[in-house]
Amino acid sequence: MMNKTRKFALNATFSALQQVVTMLVGLVSPRIMLQFYGSEINGLVASITQFISYISLIEAGLSGAAVYSLYKPLAEHDVKGINGIVSAAKRTYTRLGYVFTGLTLVLAVIYASIVSVQGLSVQEIFFLILVMGVSGAMEFFTMAKYRVLFTADQKQYILSICTMVGVVLNMLLIVLCAVLHLNIVWLKVIATLSVFARSAILAGYMRKRYKYVNFKEKPNMRALDKRWDALYMQILWNLQSGAPVVLATIFTNMVQVSIYTVYNLVIYGINNVASIFMSGSGMHAAFGEMIVTGDRKKLKKVYGQFLFAFYSILTVLYSVTGVMYMPFMKNYVANLSDTQLYIVPTLALLFFINGLLSAIQTPQGMMTIAAGMYRETRVQNSIQAGILVIGGVVMTPLLGLYGILLAAIAANFYRLIDYLFFISRKFKEIGMKETVIHLIRVVLQVAVVYAIFWFIPLPNNGYLEWALSAVIVFVVSSAVVLLSALLFNRKDLKDLFGRLKLLVRR
After folding, report:
1. 3-state secondary structure string across 160-197
2. Cβ(461)–Cβ(433) below 8 Å
3. What are the φ and ψ backbone dihedral angles of 202, each rounded to 5 degrees?
4. Under a CB-based contact definition with an 8 Å cutoff, are residues 203 and 150 in contact?
5. Is 63:148 a contact under the CB 8 Å cutoff?
6. Confidence of residue 226 (pLDDT cuts 50, 70, 90)
7. Partner of 415 at 20 to 30 A CA spacing, among 102, 226, 357, 368?
8. Measured between alpha carbons, how far is 199 from 203 in angstroms, rounded to an integer?
């Protein structure tokens, strides 16, 4: 049986690879859209994607509740208990799939009658929304029940492999359709084939490795009761993540939506790489197991090591991002008909600040999910969402995209401060002082790296020079983080290398 360290390594490795692949694909596909279909249609697709993601909120809380309920029966090898929970999850997801399909149809009717885009008829916008909703429906009908079990059993690497296959196939289909100059609706129809490939891989692995699982067991619906606690938290999280695009859709235009989504591609990708320590590596499941078994001494030790490792990697990621963000954007939008609209350094700075504030909360967010503290954080999440939405509604008509980002920064800053007090209060073993010191070091180290390259300009003539410059920044930022660790976190560094050595031996 695979031990926790090996599971973490597998999950982290494949999740990191998945995030890198997803980020690269996420950069290629919009660039193809911009080149072949223009900013307005690119903005339309981004807007529709966000509205469909809001429909997916009907599932909010279900996955987290099912995963949390599976920790104990999986740890105790209680087959009947496992089957009761996964059967309940399957039944619920199937029902939600039908609801999702109906709501997507309603969205298509309303959206197509309100939004107009040059070059697309009302009927084309209508069918575009329906087609883009297919992958969401497939998630409910096929993949969701597998995702729940693999996540709880700390086997996210399987999900990562399937996701990589899906996103790469999706990108290849998009490129092919764009080169053939197919209508955007037909492009999305053909691109949905990637969803079926992902479903087939998951189903095959399930049949081979989980022969004891029976989805026809009597459903244990009570195991999903915690869903209603998780529901509110997930709704607010999705509201916040999608609010900027919705605000831009309402108060600006599709070109501004496109600009926002293009800038957000980089930050979204970087934060997804950082999030592998929470969602992709199985750490929240591992911490959840420690919490439910009451192993507080181990919890304190492992969480301290996790903080050090996470904030070290985050420092390197955001040091490279801070220096190479605008140079990348200049290459990315080069030769577009409206290139100058995308070159906005002030906007890049606000995206950077907001992204760092969001990513820096990952350890605290992980502990909240691992402990199933959904009800306990309702008020805080509501305040954060309120700051973003109300602030965005007030400032976006006046400041455009700047107003959206300023509201997001204020919301994330509030949540970070609140998390520091909340986690130290709920987990006495985890002191606030240690976390605050880590945060200060992250900011100072990122600032040092940025200052170095402020005085040492780097070449940026095309992607090759940009990549070589990024490698230089990566090496310098890694050296800064290592030097800081040797001076201030020598024990944490030694423990981390000890774990890595043990893993290699095994």
Report:
1. HHHHHHHHHHHHHHHHHHHHCCCCHHHHHHHHCHHHHH
2. no
3. -60, -45
4. no
5. yes
6. low
7. 226
8. 6
Q: Considering only 135-139, 350-354, 362-366, which range has the smallest mean pLDDT?
A: 135-139
Give the tens place of pLDDT for each residue, 289-317. Answer: 777 777 777 788 888 888 898 999 999 99
By CB neighbour count within 10 A (0-12 exposed, 13-18 middle, 19+ buried), where does 413 fall? Answer: middle
The DSSP 8-state label assigned to residue 143 in this structure reads: I
**From CA 239, how far away is CA 245, in angstroms rounded?**
10
Residue linked to tokens 């996470």 = 310
Q: What is the pLDDT of residue 223?
A: 67
- Chain centroid to Cα 439, Å, comes to 21
What is the distance between the alpha carbons of residues 149 and 320, in angstroms, rounded to a whole number? 36
Predicted local confidence at residue 283, as pLDDT: 66
d(Cα 66, Cα 288) in Å, to the nearest integer? 13
Contacts of 317 (CB under 8 A, 6+ apart): 270, 273, 274, 359
CA distance 352 to 405: 10
Q: Are 436 and 420 in contact (CB under 8 A)?
A: yes
Hey, what amino acid is at 37? Y
Question: Is the pLDDT confidence value at 484 over 80?
Answer: yes
Q: Per DSSP, what are the bridge partners of residue 120?
A: 117
Q: At which residue do the structure tokens 């605000």 appear?
A: 247
Angle CA 241–382–273, to nearest 5 = 30
Q: Which amino acid is at 348?
A: A
Distance between CA 304 and CA 429 in Å, rounded? 10
The packing angle between helices 4-55 and 490-505, to 10°, is: 100
Distance of alpha carbon 407 from alpha carbon 418, whole angstroms: 17
What single DSSP character describes residue 59?
A: G
Other Cβ atoms less than 10 A from the Cβ of 169: the count is 18
